[in-house]
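// run 5 | inverse folding | seed 20
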């Protein structure tokens, strides 16, 4: 999976769709060009230390996971994706996969497809937008982690960094010509189990991962402007003529 996606749903839409109990923190604005280290909206389930109750929360996370044991957060930009085949085993991801899973709602994501070189020219890359053809939201499987900056004093709210990764798998035949990886998707009927903080068996969590049915996915070319992270508007997901 490439490192860009779009997520334009507002807070009210997400609260209703995901049956949110609490909005914790300032959510990022709608974006049609989310890039690594950008803030993203995520759904998590946390047990309150005050009353022991489990609450579903809508929270901001930074895209690019920083393991709790990291010396600094610099490597987060390289860990925007976690491979489904190894997420339960890799030291960077296994603790989060066992206990801190999240849902990352998206309109869709972008992939760049290599095009043939014109006579006398160089090959280029054409961006495509991949989304659910039925108009539904693409609910990607994610994991999240907390990292503390020990250089900051105790009690400083900025001492904590909350980050996430998207779990990916081999692309279906319908999308394999664009890229060999795609995000895992959590089906609506599995949301509760995926978010359950009491489900700590990696094997059980692995069984909840699935790929959106290939026939539900569509891909079309979009403007090359999406390649510049400074560009961010709904026009980025509008289809253009294929090259």
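// decoded
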């Amino acid at each position: 999976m490439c490192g860009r996606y779009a997520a334009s749903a507002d807070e009210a839409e997400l609260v209703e769709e995901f049956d949110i109990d609490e909005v914790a923190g300032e959510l990022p604005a709608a974006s049609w060009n989310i890039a690594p280290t950008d803030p993203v909206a995520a759904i998590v389930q946390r047990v309150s230390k005050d009353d022991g109750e489990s609450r579903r929360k809508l929270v901001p996370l930074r895209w690019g996971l920083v393991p709790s044991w990291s010396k600094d957060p610099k490597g987060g930009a390289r860990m925007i994706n976690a491979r489904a085949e190894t997420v339960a085993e890799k030291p960077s991801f296994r603790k989060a996969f066992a206990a801190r899973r999240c849902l990352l709602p998206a309109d869709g994501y972008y992939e760049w497809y290599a095009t043939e070189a014109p006579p006398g020219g160089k090959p280029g890359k054409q961006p495509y937008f991949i989304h659910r053809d039925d108009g539904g939201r693409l609910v990607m499987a994610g994991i999240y982690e907390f990292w503390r900056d020990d250089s900051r004093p105790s009690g400083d709210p900025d001492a904590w960094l909350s980050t996430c990764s998207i779990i990916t798998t081999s692309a279906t035949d319908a999308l394999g010509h664009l890229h060999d990886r795609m995000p895992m998707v959590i089906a609506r009927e599995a949301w509760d189990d995926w978010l359950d903080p009491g489900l700590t068996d990696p094997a059980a969590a692995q069984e909840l991962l699935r790929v959106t049915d290939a026939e539900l996915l569509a891909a079309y070319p979009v403007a090359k402007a999406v390649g510049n992270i400074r560009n961010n508007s709904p026009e980025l997901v509008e289809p253009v003529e294929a090259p």
